[in-house]
Amino acid sequence: MSTSDPPVVLIVEDEPDVAETYKLWLQGEYEVRMAQNGDEGLELLDGTVDVVLLDRMMPGLSGDEVLTEIRERELGCRVAMVTAVEPDFDILEMGFDAYLSKPIRSKQLHETVTNLLERSAYDSMLQQYYALVEKQATLEATKSSAELAESEQYEALTEEIAEMKDGLSDTLGGIEDDDDFIATLRGLGTDEDE
Amino acid sequence: MYDLSSVLDFDALTEVRPGSSILVSGPAMTGKEQFVYDVLADGATDGDGAVVVTTSDKAADVVEQFHDRVPGLEGSQLGVVDCRGEGGADPELIDGVSVHQVSSPGDLTGIGIGITKALEGLHNSGRERGRLALISLSTMLTYTDKKTVFKFCHVLSSRLDAAGYIGVFTIDSSAHDQQTIQVIKQAFDGLIEIREADGGGREARVLGLANEPTDWQRI
User: Fold this and answer.
1) Cβ neighbours of residue B93 under 8 Å, at least 6 residues apart?
2) CATH architecture of the domain formed by B11-218
3) CB 3.0–4.6 Å: which of A148, B90, B137, B166 could bond B171 by disulfide?
4) What is the pLDDT of residue A92?
5) Are A188 and B158 inside 8 Å of each other by CB?
6) HSE-up of B3 (CA within 13 Å, CB side)?
7) Does A131 touch chain B (CB under 8 A)?
8) CA triple B112-B115-B120, angle to 5 deg
9) pLDDT at A193
10) Given an 8 Å threshold on Cβ–Cβ distance, is A169 in contact with B158?
11) CB-closest option in B108, B144, B150 to A133
12) Alpha-carbon span B204 to B25, nearest angstrom
């Protein structure tokens, strides 16, 4: 996700009216792409997609099958499942990042997309945080404490680490929520830059 | 506040802030595991909840240990997340304690789900305070790299912070290079180092929980 372009949301939904409604709600803030079924959805999926809204019950490939493929391709996108009924199973264990039950309201849709984007932001901050910590550890391992005390680079790094740590605790309410917790852990194994 | 000084007699451990995560580091056979079990058992005696995430000890042994150490332990006070990947029913009740199975010490999502369920169980039984132990990060580091373990520790620490729990995590300092320990410890609020003392016995020091690191002290 680059800073200048709006985030990309892919809607995979077989009912055109429903898909159009979602698009209407989202298009002011996001770049919206639409697919009418699972196969088309997989074709449109690439590294630029940030959030996928995936209808669970579709003719052809089901939402679950599309999800499996997304995870296998290790695309960094977040996936919200859209269901007709509230699921009676643990959505997180299935590998979805969130779910929405129909009928969906505009506010709810916006909140979910915002939360999923915030999780992605958290992931990349955590990635940067780790890079800084690793750099710091290398300096600490190679320089004496007297050298560290005089090193401007070390001082700047220490400051940057403290700032990044604060930033992380301000994002996602500092992982207050169980769904955020699990989804963030799931993201750890699939870094985009590896 | 959590008082750990009855387990390890340091002023720096008398008032540990809720939400703190502490790394317990030392070479093999210096009693790290015993120490973290003591921390949890001591809290459980006062009614705190306890969560044990284990990569080596059998869940049944963990439960037995707690029953032995904590007179009047209620089953709902303890949750065990067994990451040895031995299978078994999930969730399973052992002597009234719920045990959650995870496929391997490298299955971070599975560990997270197990912890979430254990925390939920404690919450539902009305426990507002609790202590979590993870034994050990060294095993996790053999299944996944230090970057992933670092991030996992950071995210778990944040979750414990939100819950107002404290966490104690063990690492075998003789099993990893200095740089790895240096990186991992950055994910924690505090560090307790244990080592063998000259002339036998053990000594410890506490870093990060008070303004200054403490001196080495015999334990």
Assistant:
1) B75, B99
2) 3-Layer(aba) Sandwich (3.40)
3) B137
4) 66
5) no
6) 7
7) no
8) 125
9) 42
10) yes
11) B150
12) 10
A26-42 burial, b for 16+ CB within 10 Å, e for fewer? beeebebbbbbbbeebb
Helix, strand, or coil (residue B57): coil
DSSP code of B141? H
Amino acid at B18: P
- Angle (nearest 5°) at CA A169 between B166 and A182: 70
Give A138's contacts in chain B (Cβ within 8 Å): 179
pLDDT attached to residue A192: 42
Sequence spans of domains, chain B: 11-218
Question: How close is the nearest chain A Cα to the Cα of B120, in Å?
Answer: 10
A contacts of B149 (beta carbons < 8 Å) = none
Report the complex ipTM: 0.88
What is the value of pTM for the model shown? Answer: 0.88
Q: Which residue has the tokens 């970057």?
A: B147
Q: Given pLDDT bands bounded at 50, 70 and 90, which one contains residue A64?
A: confident
In chain B, residues with a C-beta closer than 8 Å to the C-beta of A167 are none
Distance from CA of B182 to the nearest CA of A (A): 6
| Burial of A179 (C-beta count, 10 Å sphere; 0-12/13-18/19+) | middle
